[in-house]
Specification:
Elements: H1 3-20, H2 29-37, E1 44-48, H3 54-61, E2 66-71, H4 74-83, E3 89-93, H5 100-104, E4 109-114, H6 123-136, E5 137-148, E6 159-162, E7 165-167, E8 177-179, H7 183-192, E9 195-207, E10 212-223
Parallel strand pairs: 1-2, 1-4, 2-3, 4-5
Antiparallel strand pairs: 5-10, 6-7, 7-8, 9-10
Length: about 220
Amino acid sequence: MNEIQKAQEHSYKLWEKHISNSMLLYPNEYLTRYIYANRSKFNSILDFGCGDGRHLEMMARAGIKEIIGIDCNASALKIANQRCEKYNITLHQNNQNINLKELIQRDDLDCVVCWGITLINANYVTSSIFKQFADILKSGGKIIANWRAQDDSLYGDGKEIDKDTFIIQRDSHKGMLYYIPNLDDIKAIYKGANLEIISIDSERFTTDNGKIINSWHIIEAKKV
């Protein structure tokens, strides 16, 4: 196992502790608008990295008929199950070694949501995940994902162990592996997965009186 793989496995363990100690109450506003705008077109959605279920609950309220949530964190899934118990939502735990198509037994989904997940996976993992997304989507199926942008305060924070891949030093994320590629490299990941980018938008806000910049690319794509 090389340095990047070791850092990735260690980061997963740290991330599990981090997410287990917090609960995100509200769904992202941009993603909420996107789901509601497309709810007549989306009968089936996978939320990859669903965490404690904040977006699963939103999708159910939007009237999406078939909702699947996947996360590697058992404790987060337990919260998601409690949160969404009144809805008909299927939850799966993914141990990072299971192929998504084998896990969910589907290749006809209308949409995959990948929100707040791309940054915690190294390039080799992210590239594989997006190829798997293409395998579980129907022709023309959509992917909506967000990616940390390089003007974000986390970019360059810590030891760079590979191109645009850092072991973060900030106390709130200390020891985690964060991959923050440029747009050209992001586009290459989509192209390698036979996914066509439809739109690229952005979301940016600051905290701590402007000291911390949170900056994201928001990308919609479809299966070619």
